[in-house]
């Protein structure tokens, strides 16, 4: 499936099933591949893989194996991206090496007078109230990670559009930073 070869993917699926491999194990691996190897390049792949697993559980073998074959072919021809998988690993490494960083005050909930007095929620910008649903220049990281970047979308499938959107956000952020600097 990783190599975008649906015929080979079907062959190996049939070999595994013929060899006695548990079809539910195969379904679990197909779901993993939908997330790890395709990700946001085609987010429908994950739903289709989960649906195939559910059909297999409901119908059993051999009827449910056709749904598994459908998922295998779809995943084989889907655009590929492991950008989310790589980003998840990078973020996990940052957490492991950096420890428990404090949540910035402006992101903290302020349900009590004491929390408000300590500055929780002060100057928080609600993205839905901003033009385009984005708060340019807002920081959602702890101070130590202010400029961290883990997710690097690929130029395939839906991730190409996601990358363009993120680039637009970075441009807005840069303009917001320049404006704040000029206003100071």
Draw up the topology in text.
Elements: H1 6-18, H2 23-38, H3 44-59, H4 63-77, H5 83-98, H6 113-117, H7 157-183
Helix pairs in contact: 1-4, 2-3, 2-4, 3-4
Description:
The chain contains 7 helices and no strands. The mean pLDDT is 92. By secondary structure, it is an all-alpha fold. The chain is elongated, with a radius of gyration of 22 Å. The longest helix has 27 residues, at 157-183. Helix 1 (6-18) packs antiparallel against helix 4. The chain has 2 domains: 6-77, Zinc Finger, Delta Prime, domain 3; 83-183, post-AAA+ oligomerization domain-like.
CATH top level label of the largest domain: Mainly Alpha
Series of H and E elements: HHHHHHH
CATH topology annotation of the largest domain? post-AAA+ oligomerization domain-like
Approximate shape: elongated
Report the sheet with the most strands, covering strand number, pairing sense and barrel closure.
none
Quaternary state of this entry equals: single chain
Number of helices: 7
Number of DSSP-assigned strands: 0
Summed up, the domain count is 2
The CATH superfamily label of the largest domain reads DNA polymerase III clamp loader subunits, C-terminal domain
Cα distance spanning the termini: 54 Å
């Amino acid at each position: 499936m990783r190599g975008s070869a649906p015929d080979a993917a079907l062959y190996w699926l049939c070999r595994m099933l013929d060899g006695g491999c548990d079809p539910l194990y195969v379904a679990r691996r197909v779901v993993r591949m939908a997330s790890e190897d395709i990700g946001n390049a085609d987010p429908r792949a994950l739903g289709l893989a989960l649906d195939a697993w559910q059909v297999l559980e409901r119908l059993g073998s051999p009827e449910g194996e056709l749904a598994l074959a459908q998922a295998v072919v779809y995943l084989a021809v889907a655009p590929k991206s492991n950008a989310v998988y790589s980003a998840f690993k990078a973020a996990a490494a940052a957490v492991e090496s950096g420890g428990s960083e404090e949540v910035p005050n402006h992101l903290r909930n302020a349900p009590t007078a004491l929390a408000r007095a300590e500055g929780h929620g002060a100057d928080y910008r609600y993205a839905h109230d901003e033009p385009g649903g984005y708060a340019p220049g807002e920081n959602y990281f702890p101070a130590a990670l202010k400029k961290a970047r883990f997710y690097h979308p690929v130029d395939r499938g839906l991730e190409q559009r996601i990358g363009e959107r993120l680039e637009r956000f970075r441009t807005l952020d840069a303009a917001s930073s320049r404006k704040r600097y000029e206003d100071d």
